[in-house]
UniProtKB/TrEMBL annotation, chain A:
GO terms for molecular function: CoA-transferase activity. It comes from Metallumcola ferriviriculae. Belongs to the 3-oxoacid CoA-transferase subunit B family. PANTHER family: ACETATE COA-TRANSFERASE YDIF, CHOLESTEROL RING-CLEAVING HYDROLASE IPDB SUBUNIT. This is Glutaconate CoA-transferase. It comes from the Bacteria. The lineage of its organism: Bacteria, Bacillati, Bacillota, Clostridia, Neomoorellales.
From TrEMBL, chain B:
It comes from Metallumcola ferriviriculae. This is CoA transferase subunit A. The keyword Zinc-finger does not apply. It comes from the Bacteria. One of its GO terms (molecular function) is CoA-transferase activity.
Length: 260, 294
């Protein structure tokens, strides 16, 4: 165990532990933490993980050192490529993928996310977001996804999103997605800088599952803009162990992007 | 009779764009963006365009700042960690100065595929249950006649022109990307006219006997424009990486206290320059050569 790690490294390691061998994992643009976590899983435990980087299928095991390039569409990912595909293929075959990661400028109590914007007066935007990207399509089909939030406060964790770009559990209830005809498994966890939330089985309301070392569950509740349900036993996420940190720093992120 | 070359100049290709047209822009966020054609459209002061793109970047900012755009059909406008939301896009939309047809990348694909096939619409699932149909009334929710599930009818997108950037083409319009092809082929198929700017025009002999190297067949391609370093400040697959310093210079100009920041950028890098050669001289050979992929 090490106490010398950053929150970004802890989040990447938590993500890494969620991966199962043989899965197809889609990492999108502007997602350095999931990208690092998936690479860590691949190098440590899951040699058959299918990991596209940009639009290339990769064989990264042969590389002594990988890199997290600042932009998604970077041709240098082609160094590790064993095949390529097109954006059409990714969108048309979203049902083939097992895991992806979705962000938002808001997330609500049912795991709906918003990349569109915050409502202002008279139908205008108070804040215009970047746009939905591919999340409405991917979230409809993918077997499970993780919602990744860069901050945790009541302005971001809201009771109801101003706009919904990716449907989580819609208006709640275990049948919510089936009623909309969405074949995908929906959001599994919400990963924030404080800890991990899942969704209560019946209502599909967000529930605090685990916190990071040193985070008080009450702090998470206070920083959530709706009534956050608590697990009977809120766990503590175990810090990255030596192997996990060695792979993360030595091979995945030698430039220390997650340590900044 | 001799076979015709489809090679033309940037000026001639961009002059085909008239006010109010729909223009699809190929590539993906920060790679293979047809910047030479875009800068020429800006110099031509083209107005009221509808711009179609899959995740797009700061080129949308430039088109907005230059007053070229009436409507956007674009699912994302940003530069990831460098600029999570493009600043001019954000300001312009918040002020209600441009119409946004709210879409996701899959919906753009569905609309273009309907365009390719000559269908009025294409069914698509992504977007069901979201705010997209409420914000974009052209998307109609319907129950599919097979299983009765709710789906979106996405109306066909038929761009007047598609502008693409690729690695190579011969003079007969056989286009070869290096690496991935983004959504370029579908855009080319949907558009009435497709113009591809390329890093190199290669001898026809290079594709003869290697037809698999052609990524867009020439029945989808109308004009080829020679444009070395033509995606700068973005990357071009097989040639160079994005010029992140330049992107930061742009963002610095826009976000500075100077309200004319974006004007100054446009003057320096677009409007005060006469052509692409002028642009490359302004950027400088040392900077360009430093952007190698490897």
């Amino acid at each position: 165990m090490s106490s010398d790690y950053t929150i970004d490294e802890l989040m990447a390691t938590f993500i890494s532990r969620q991966m199962h061998d043989d899965e197809l994992v889609i990492v999108g643009a502007n997602q350095p933490i999931p990208r690092a976590g998936v690479m860590q899983a691949y190098l440590l435990r899951c040699p058959n993980l299918k990991v596209p980087m940009y639009f290339y299928m990769t064989d990264m095991a042969r590389e002594k050192q990988l890199q997290l390039y600042p932009l998604f569409a970077d041709g240098r990912y082609r160094r590790w490529a064993e095949g390529y595909f097109t954006f059409e293929m990714q969108l048309e075959s979203a049902r083939k993928a097992d895991v992806c990661f979705i962000g938002g400028i808001q997330v609500d109590q049912y795991g709906n996310t918003n990349l569109i914007g915050i409502k202002g007066k008279e139908g205008n935007f108070k804040l215009r977001g970047p746009g939905s990207a591919g999340t409405p399509t991917t979230s409809s089909y993918i077997k499970r996804y993780y919602i990744l939030m860069g901050s945790h406060n009541p302005r971001v964790f809201v009771k109801r999103c101003d706009y919904v770009s990716a449907v989580g559990w819609h208006n709640g209830g275990a049948d919510a997605r089936r009623a909309l005809g969405l074949p995908g498994g929906g959001p599994k966890y919400v990963i924030s800088p404080f800890g991990i939330m899942d969704f209560e089985e019946e209502t599909k309301k967000m529930r605090l599952k685990a916190v990071y070392p040193g985070v008080d569950p009450d702090q998470v509740v206070r920083n959530t803009g709706f009534e956050l349900i608590m697990h009977e036993q809120v766990e503590v996420v175990s810090p990255p162990n030596e192997d996990e940190l060695r792979v993360l720093r030595g091979r995945v992120d030698p430039q220390g992007i997650l340590r900044k | 009779m001799e076979r015709k070359s489809v090679v033309t100049t940037v000026q001639e290709a961009a002059a085909k764009i008239e006010n109010g047209m729909t223009v699809a822009i190929g590539g993906f966020i920060s790679s293979n963006i047809p910047m030479v054609l875009i800068r020429e459209m800006i110099r031509n002061k083209t107005k009221n365009l509808t711009i179609v793109a899959i995740p797009a970047g700061l080129e949308i900012d430039l088109l907005l700042a230059a007053g070229c755009v009436g409507k956007l059909i674009v699912p994302y406008v940003g530069a990831e960690a460098i600029a999570p939301i493009s600043p001019i896009f954000r300001q312009t939309v918040e002020k209600g100065q441009v119409e946004v047809m709210e879409v996701d990348s899959g919906i753009v694909l569905a609309g273009l595929k309907a365009g390719v096939a000559g269908l009025p619409f294409m069914p698509w699932r992504g977007g069901v249950g979201t705010s997209l149909p409420e914000l974009n009334p052209t998307l109609k929710v319907f129950n599919d006649p097979i299983n009765g599930e709710p789906l979106l009818a996405v109306p066909a997108i038929v761009p007047d022109v598609a502008f693409l950037h690729a690695a190579y083409a011969d003079k007969y319009g056989n286009v070869a990307h290096y690496g991935t092809t983004f959504m370029d082929k579908t855009m080319a198929g949907a558009a009435e006219t497709t113009v591809v700017q390329v890093e190199q025009i290669i001898p026809h002999e290079f594709v003869m006997g290697k037809p698999n190297s052609v990524t867009i067949p020439n029945f989808y391609v109308d004009r080829i424009v020679k444009a070395p370093y033509g995606s700068h400040p973005y990357a071009s697959e097989g040639f160079y990486s994005a010029d992140i310093e330049h992107l930061q210079e742009y963002l610095h100009a826009v976000k500075s206290d100077d309200p004319d920041g974006v004007e100054n950028y446009l003057n320096k890098y677009v409007t005060n320059l006469s052509d692409h050669e002028d642009y490359l001289e302004t950027i400088g050979i040392r900077k360009l050569l430093s952007l190698a992929e490897f």
